[in-house]
Specification:
The chain is α/β, with parallel strands linked by helices and 316 residues long. Helix content is 51%, strand content 16%.
Amino acid sequence: MGKVAFIFPGQGSQKVGMGKDLVEAYQECNAIYETANNQVGFNLSDIIFNGNDEDLTVTYHAQPAILTTSIALLEKIKEAGIKPDYVAGHSLGEFSALVAAEAISFEDGVKLVHKRGKLMDQAVPVGQGAMAAVLFLAPDKIEEVLTEVNKKGHSVGVANYNSPTQVVITGDAEGVQIASGLLKEAGAKRVLPLKVSGPFHSSLMKPASEEFQNELGKINVESCTYPLISNVTAKEITEATEIKELLVQQLFSPVKWNQSIQELVELGVDTFVEIGPGKVLTGLVKAISPSAKLVNVYDVETLKQFLLEWEEIKTC
């Protein structure tokens, strides 16, 4: 059989009530949410299970919430003895991937992404940054347009290379607005503004990255048990020093998701298991590698189905 990659979703995949069926079904999953509450210093699980969309969408709530739910699902998969050949995560999801790779502990991971969310939120005042998804325009054409916009004194760049047909741009609000108009003129099928609180993965996040580096210095980072494909380089990494360096760069660098999936396919991966809320990543993988086997594990039912069908999935 081919190889297996566990992939983990990023911010935007959160949903009120996610994981509630897990804690009702498994006592050990409840303990994971309790651990998260203790690490962040407030009742995060209440916001996840009983809160509202507005509260859960706040960056410093969404990030630890998604990581906690992803890891609660992962723990049941690990308990069944199922292991990946590689791991990867989209932006925030890279931290879930690092917990899966045994490079950082869950306790440190959830505390770290809560702090990361706060730093990202503070880096640019609300309303001054923006992001937009650009559909069906070649990445090199998008980069040309952004170069022209930046010559006019703006700060706009690529946030995510998501798939062959989807690129997300990021930067100062006016720059993103100007670029959006020019990208439509250049032939983009659609340019959709994203509902986000800041210009993530842009140079405007550099102040946050400096403080984040200090936070990283406080935790223990080990080498990966399972190799991680980095968002920044789209290449395999395992060493603790490199992990730390790239996590800092990740805050202001594009997420090379399209390139990361292509790299995993080159490495022999043919089965992608998305672990965590939502189905965004398997949708992107399908656009990048149409022949890949795709599995979603996001609640109790999909988890049970995956555990039952795993032997069949891996031998297909």
